[in-house]
Amino acid sequence: MMNQERSAGDDGKRQGLSLRLPLFTGDKFVGQMTAVALVVVPSLLLATCSVPTGIATITRPELEIEWWASIAFLVVGGVIALGSFDSIRSARRQRPTDVLVSERGLTIQAGEADALEIPFDSIDAEASTLRRSTREKLSLATDLVIVSGDQELVVATGEETDSFLAILGLLRAQAGLPPRSHEEWEKELSETGVYLGAAKAPQAEAKAEPDDTPEQEVEIMTCSSCSAVLAPREAATVQCDHCGHQTAVPEPLRARFRELARREELDTKIKRRLGRLLSQPPARRASLITGGLLAIPCAAWIASFVVLNLMIFDPALTLGDAGAYASTLVVALLVPFLLGIAMHAAADLYAVGRRTVRLVALDFGAAPPATPNTPYRCRSCAAPLASDGDDLLVSCGYCTSVNVLGLAAPRVATWRRRAQAAELKAALEAYRRERSFRRTGIFVFTLPALAAAWYAICNPPAI
Questions:
Q1: How far apart are CA 22 and CA 432, in angstroms?
Q2: pLDDT one-digit tens code per residue, 35-44
Q3: Are 272 and 42 in contact (CB under 8 A)?
Q4: 385 Cβ partners below 8 Å, 6+ apart?
């Protein structure tokens, strides 16, 4: 998923900007679908086992199956399954969803409000807010309410309030309203019962680089002929896009660009990681992949219960073979359980990527051009950025802040930058560690599951 649909011109000029921002990253969706795979599906299968168990009680009296066993399967499995159905409804509401932020407005992609378009000129950013959900039984569920004209549109319902606040911040920035801090939102929303979670630890702010403070005061280079703003680069002169005049680049600025070029040569690994990160699948594909992965343990549960029920009706099975049946039962239940944990880790890889895309977009994305056909602007000082067309990372020649050119968004509240990792390298390193942890989990749980399944196939119970 490239999070920036754009057409490129010379010197970093962009037009037709549109930012794809994850509204629901899929964290909750993956967790709830895992609960379905590990709790709801086996509970339903346990309840259905009451039928073959009841039949076996009548047709296979030699197995001495108690009459109450079938009733116990039905009651226990049914109660657990019915009590877990809220997970299915909540998972449906919080499945991966994107918001496409274009020059015209917002477009919801996937999710409950799929294809909903809201023009900026109809949005009341001041009145748009978060509310305690009345549609979900979950205590932490929150509605994202966007006021458009005389309508209050519930765009999303879930627990990812960080995404919701990011959208409200974008709307306020687009409308020219002052940003709100986490504390201000928390104070305003506390009376409505909305829980925003604890603010980030203060030590995160201490890690911030001095150059990462937004809105720094810098002296912007301008054309010596028409006074238009120029995007400087490491060259003797820069041509003005408006009048064509060549303006000399001051030597201190050129020296800074040479230093930035040397630093960026060492950051090729960061660029590769960032490129892989921005290739995350969009919301619909992420939902399909997650559903497909978690369907694997569901299929394993079904196969296990079918095998166990068929064994009960095998004429060769006698009361003396209870030990063999018990060992088969353990393997049949262990394999889908281990596969469920492994597939949870595999599906969570996409949620981690989408969550990191949101962080990078809001904390490190360059500011959009002030006017069409002008360069991107620095996320920290708003100075124009010089780019050679398809650059992914560009360092500001004035304040040295690193900007991601695929993720331009209106300026958002500064508390986000101070609350998150101050360095892009640190954010991508945390992303790499999370992916490595989940990949390790995939192998740790998949290999024993496959080994147990292979052993069961090669060594069927001797009945």
A1: 19
A2: 889 988 999 8
A3: no
A4: 12, 231, 366, 375, 376, 377, 378, 394, 396, 403, 405
Long-range contacts, stretch 229-235, CB < 8 angstroms, 24+ apart = 229/374, 229/384, 230/384, 231/11, 231/12, 231/375, 231/384, 231/385, 231/386, 231/387, 232/257, 232/386, 232/397, 233/257, 233/386, 233/397, 234/258, 234/261
**pLDDT tens-place string over residues 340-358:** 999 999 999 888 888 888 7
- The span from the first CA to the last CA of the chain, in angstroms, equals 54
Structure tokens at 294: 């978690």
* Angle ∠(75,78,82) on CA atoms, nearest 5: 140
Q: What is the mean predicted confidence (pLDDT) over 372-377?
A: 73
Other C-beta atoms lying within 10 Å of the C-beta of residue 435: 18
Joined together, the tokens standing for residue 90 give: 């909540």
Please, which pLDDT band fits residue 117 given cuts at 50, 70 and 90?
A: very high
Q: What's the pTM?
A: 0.72
Which residues neighbour 299 within 8 Å (Cβ) at sequence distance 6 or greater? none
Average pLDDT, the chain: 76
Quick one: 211 exposed, middle or buried, by C-beta within 10 A (0-12, 13-18, 19+)? Answer: middle
